[in-house]
Design a protein that fits this description.
This protein is an all-alpha fold. It has a domain at 7-62. The protein is 62% helix and 0% strand. Helix 1 (7-33) runs antiparallel to helix 2. The longest helix is centred in the N-terminal third of the chain and has 27 residues, at 7-33. The mean pLDDT is 77.
């Protein structure tokens, strides 16, 4: 039995976490490298990472054998143990 995947929640979960990770990476990079911090640079960094993540999720959901968003050629959800 294939699980039903809510594609919108899947997209929000994956892209949302990517946005948070990108923001953390950008913030740490700016703080530790002594680079000039600008909100525009932070927004660009996070925006590009999030856009790439959204594109990856959309491609993953519309290709492959299942609709779980996996792009590795095999389902990421294993059958339950017997």
């Amino acid at each position: 039995m294939n699980p039903r995947v809510n594609k919108w929640l899947d997209l929000l979960d994956r892209a949302g976490w990517t946005a948070l990770q990108a923001a953390a990476a950008a913030g740490i990079t700016f703080l530790t490298n002594g680079a000039e911090f600008s909100w525009q640079a932070l927004g660009t960094f996070v925006g590009i990472a999030t856009a790439v993540s959204v594109l990856k999720v959309i491609i993953g959901q519309n290709t492959g054998e299942g609709d779980d968003g996996s792009l590795i050629g095999t389902p990421v959800i294993e059958p339950p143990a017997q």
